[in-house]
Each structure stands twice: as C-alpha cells, then as structure tokens.
Amino acid sequence: MKITAILCTCNRCDTLDKALESLASSRLSQGTEWEVIVVDNNSRDRTRDLVEEYCRRYPGHFRYLFEPRPGKSYALNSGIREAGGDILVFTDDDVIVDQNWLQNIAAGLEDGRWVGAGGRTFAEPGFVPPAWLPQSGRYALPPLALFDFGSEPSELKKSPFGNNMAFHKSMFVKHGGFRTDLGPRFGSKGPQKSEDSEFGMRLLARGERFLYEPSAIVYHAVPKNRARKSYFLAWWFDKVRADIRVEGIPGPTRWFICGVPLYLFRRLAFWTFQWIFTFKPADRFECRIKAWAKVGQITECYRMWREGKAR
After folding, report:
1. What is the 3-state secondary structure (H, E, C) of 86-151?
2. What does pLDDT average to over the chain?
3. Cβ-contact 99, 216 below 8 angstroms
C-alpha cells in the first residue's frame, strides 16, 4: 500500500509547521510507503522555505507543489494529479494528527469494501465551548470543523470532513475532482464552503460506500476568532449558499420573488421571532443562526436569478 497525504495551504506558516511536524511523526506498518504533498496556493510568507526544510529532513516523504490559481479546489486537484499513492488522504494546515492517524485512516480501504473513509476530529486540548454555543445538533460542530460519531467503526452515510478523509485515487478518475466553483478562494464573492462535502455526496449518490473510522484522530485548532458569534453566523451564511449551489433551491415551491421562494421569507420571519423571544443563550443563538441561514439562502437564490438573467 502506498499512501499520499495532500495538504493545501495559504499563508499559514505557524500552524503549518505544527501540522507537518505531527505528520512527520507518523507510525505506519512495515512495508507501507507514504508521502505528504504540500500544495502552496499562492502563499506570501515562508511556506515554501518551511516545506523545503521538511523535504530535506525527511527525504522521500515530503514534497512541495505550487498551485498559482487561487482556490483550494484548484490546489486539491493539483495534489491529486501529482500523487503517487493509490490511497489519497486529506487534511488541513491547522491540525495536529495522531501518530497512528495516517495508518488508521487508510487501513480500512485496503480490503475493497469501502472507497472512502472519514475519521474523528476533536478540538485542540484545552478548548472550552462558550455558553452560547449549542452543544448538540446540526449547528454545533461544523463551523469548528469537528466530526465525531462515536467510538465504534461503522458505515458512514454522510460526507466526511476535508480535514480527516481518505479515498481510493481511482475515485477521482471515475467521478472527477473537486468542484472549482466551491471552496475557499481569496477575493471570491462566491460560496467559500462545501468542496469536500460535495465530492463525498456525489460519490454517495452514485452508490459508493464510506467507512467511519474512529481511531483516525486529528485535533483541530480553535483560534479565538472562531469561538465568536460573528464567525458562526458568517460560516452558516456561506455554507447554505454553497448548499444551494450544490443541491439547488430547497423544497418544492410555485411562488417566487426575483428567484427567491416565498416560503424562505416566512421562515426568516419565524426564526427571527424565535430569536427575539427565546432567552436561554444556546437556544437563542441557535434561532439566530437559523434566521441568518435563511438570509444566506435568500441571498444565493437572488444571486443565481441575477446570473441567469445576465446569461
């Protein structure tokens, strides 16, 4: 088995150094070949120097690749084309991986039952959730990039997160790469989310099967700016816009105003009312997120209507 880990980065030298150091400490079974491709998406800091230092310290295990087109999806697709492994593993530049992560996330794909896998992503040690954050349900973990379905392996019925996932390389030949109209891109006004979840959903819709592997663990940084209400609101605003790009306008409807289904305005009014008259901090903020998500959906429906008229 040969594993290629693909990590895309842009101007994050400090966290990248920690991520690469943890990858360099990986423990793998004898005979397993592995490499890490770091795809630099137009960094202006010391990214190249840092990665080349790891290439010298760990020859044969680290490679530097430059992708000039702005956008994480372009960087991911470049890494996939250059990968020498038959199993491709993905993570981010702001995580610390467990020493057994690389082995465990790939091991379940050896027997052919599964074409993809996702592991558990925890917050960095010491993180204490704020009192206003919902502690369960849809609105709690995704903005912090955390993913946890318990301690038992099972079939994964949803897309894994991009900081802790693996696929057979053949899946990208069979189903195509990451959509370049989605995902983080400097200066873009389009949706900045869902390039990873869209790929996973695409495979699931075509009958492919994924494994949830809880022993594949990474720890995700939670800087102060992410533990703020403004970050959660902006994250969900952008996420629902990306979801509409991927899945279309939610729900059947006959009545529109400028491309926006009328029922979205009713739901916005409902959740705004709930937000105003709910008093428990976590419940109140969850209502606020739902209201702001409706604003995101309305915004994207209108934007797509405008784009359609322009064409």
Report:
1. CEEEEECCCEEECCCHHHHHHHCCCCCCCCEEEEEEEECCCCCCCCCCCCCCCCCCHHHCCECCCC
2. 92
3. no
163-196 pLDDT, tens per residue?
999 999 999 999 999 999 888 876 655 556 789 9
Instruction: Kindly list the domain boundaries of the chain, sorted by start residue.
Output: 2-226, 248-310
Residue 12 and residue 39 in contact, taking contact as beta carbons nearer than 8 Å: no
Judged on CB neighbours under 10 Å (0-12, 13-18, 19+), 82 is middle
Of the candidates 199, 180, 63, 51, the one whose C-alpha atom is nearest the C-alpha of residue 118 is 199
Calculate the alpha carbon distances from 295 to 237, 259, 260, 267, 292 in Å.
Answer: 7, 14, 11, 10, 5
Could you give the CA distance from residue 270 to residue 106 in angstroms, rounded to a whole number? 45
Q: Which two tokens stand for residue 278?
A: 């709910």
Residue 274 is encoded by which pair of tokens?
């709930």
Q: In this predicted structure, which of 72-86, 97-111, 249-263 has the lowest mean pLDDT?
A: 249-263
Longest dimension (CA), the chain: 62
DSSP characters for 223-266? Answer: -GGGSSHHHHHHHHHHHHHHHHHHH-SSS--S-EETTEEHHHHH
Task: Check residue 105 and give its pLDDT.
Answer: 97
**CA 39 to chain CA centroid, nearest Å:** 16
Q: Mean pLDDT throughout 50-62? A: 97
Cβ contacts of residue 59 below 8 Å, gap of 6+? none
Task: Tell me the CATH number for domain 2-226.
Answer: 3.90.550.10
Mean pLDDT of 76-97: 97
Token digits for 141? 């973990």
CA angle 141, 142, 144 (to 5 degrees): 70
The least confident of 3-17, 175-189, 295-309 is: 175-189
